[in-house]
């Protein structure tokens, strides 16, 4: 099973291969070398530390809402997932 979580790029490394991504206040370093046109402010789907897709803001907000609902139902903390 694959869990992929959306987050917003807040900073990109000088070499352009990694970025700091914000997952609802949790900031993680993510490899962005697999996606094209990664830019600060864009949302990416991240799996196992790699950005695997860029998504538009509407899609990201919907996915984040679903993650929040699921985490509430299962009594999970996003920090346990990211």
In summary, what is this structure?
By secondary structure, the chain is of the alpha+beta class. 26% of the residues lie in helices and 38% in strands.
Which descriptors would you attach to this protein?
single chain, 82 residues, alpha+beta, SH3 type barrels, 5-stranded antiparallel sheet, 26% helix, 38% strand
Would you write up a description of this structure?
It is a single chain. The protein has 82 residues and is of the alpha+beta class. It has helices at residues 57-73, 78-81; strands spanning 5-12, 18-23, 26-31, 43-47, 50-55. It has one domain (5-81): SH3 type barrels (Roll), CATH 2.30.30. The chain contains 2 helices and 5 strands; from the N terminus they run E-E-E-E-E-H-H. It has a 5-stranded antiparallel beta sheet, covered by helices on one side. A hairpin with a 5-residue loop joins strand 1 and strand 2 (18-23). The protein is globular, with a radius of gyration of 12 Å. The mean pLDDT is 88.
Question: What's the helix and strand layout?
Answer:
Layout: E1 5-12, E2 18-23, E3 26-31, E4 43-47, E5 50-55, H1 57-73, H2 78-81
Antiparallel strand pairs: 1-2, 1-4, 2-3, 4-5
Query: Can you tell me the CATH topology?
Result: SH3 type barrels
Number of strands: 5
Arrangement of strands in the largest sheet: 3-2-1-4-5
Structural class: alpha+beta
The total count of helices amounts to: 2
Over the alpha carbons, how many angstroms does the gyration radius reach?
12 Å
Mean pLDDT: 88
- Measured between the Cα atoms of the first and last residue, the distance is 15 Å
CATH class bucket? Mainly Beta
Unreliable runs: none
Percent range of helical residues: 25-40%
The CATH architecture category equals Roll
Major sheet description:
5 strands, antiparallel
């Amino acid at each position: 099973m694959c869990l992929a979580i959306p987050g917003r790029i807040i900073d990109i490394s000088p070499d352009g291969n990694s970025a700091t991504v914000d997952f609802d206040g949790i900031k993680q370093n993510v490899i962005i070398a697999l996606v094209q046109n990664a830019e600060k402010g864009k949302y990416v789907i991240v799996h196992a530390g790699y950005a695997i897709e860029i998504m538009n803001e509407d899609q990201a907000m919907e996915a984040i809402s679903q993650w929040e609902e699921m985490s509430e139902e299962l009594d999970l903390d996003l920090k346990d997932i990211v």
